[in-house]
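Collaborator request, handled under Task 6.
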Amino acid sequence: MPYSVYLKKNEEKRIVAGHPWVYANEVARIEGKDKNGSLATVYDYSGRYIGKGYINHLSKILVRIFIRDESIPDLEFYKNAIKKANDARLALGMDNCYRMVFGESDNLPALIVDKYADVLCVQLLSLGIEKNKELIIQALVELFHPRGIYERSDVAVRAKEGLEERKGIIYGDFDTKVIIQENGLKMQVDLQNGQKTGYFLDQKENRFALRRYSCGKKVLDCFCNSGGFSLNAAYAKAKEVIALDISAQALNDVNINAKLNGLTNITTMQGDVFEVLRQFKRDGESFDTIILDPPAFCKSASEVKNAYKGYKDINILAMKLVKNGGFLISSSCSHYMTFPLFQNMLRDAARESGKNARIVEIRTQSGDHPSMLSTDESLYLKFFVLQIL
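Structure tokens returned to the collaborator:
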């Protein structure tokens, strides 16, 4: 008998409003018996139907709802849902590389599908999605006939679902280093070893926006990874671009990508960003534009206080290195560091650095990573352009 999950009194409001997650501590009782990872029906305390989703007794997120009617999650269901998600990206003019499916925001919780030219890369982040892996891959093949599909389910969150990390080719036979086109530039994406699913697609539009702050400028790209921001700055005729990262592999990727585009105004530098910025200050160095795009400093609510300090410290260092009238572009990819909190951190950093700053732009993740008003977790990327006065 399939699982029936009944919520405690007044716990349904957030979920009825559209949030897909049912936490274990919100549940009054569970009836029925089925396999873990199977489809469960969720009701409010009075027995009113709310929706259906895959259940996992090992996770704090007991059920991830993705059906609000009487649909059945068969092959046609997945094909229709994935096609709808992809059509939304096509309608925005996206073509060569973009996030095709963004989990909860596309009503397919815990499923990520990224398109890199004619290859797809997937992440399966819950037990229920993992159990339907073959169905999902079949849907992708029938819809898009890709040259190949790579899996990058090598993420720590899978442990919370009782799943092992995994990565590798799951369809086709292809080179895992794929050349994409982004903002008119060629980029080599390493599906096997690159960050996330190979590349940070969510910053695509922000990388393009950087160009207006780069022409004729001396630009420092901190935490440059494979060089997305560096290449856009260089392409916009920056006078000089320094791509800074602690990873030798990342800097090698920057050099490869610069060569792919015939760009000669990029210099790579290896080192810890905090330490290098301090050394620049001691040396009297300065820049017209600095980009800070660090990895997430906090991955849980308990880490926010320390993360705030880390973000503030790195922004103070950068503000001191920006020439008067120049620009600091500061970003955070942790949803726990909310927009108001991040802006407050920038305010503190400006005050403690002795600088005056004004906001020129506030941006977020690109349109292929849409966020749901009902799901705060889906809005995570903050991107502030500050002019230092």
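The cover message to the collaborator said: "The first helix runs from residue 13 to 16. The radius of gyration is 22 Å. Please let us know whether this matches your experimental observations."
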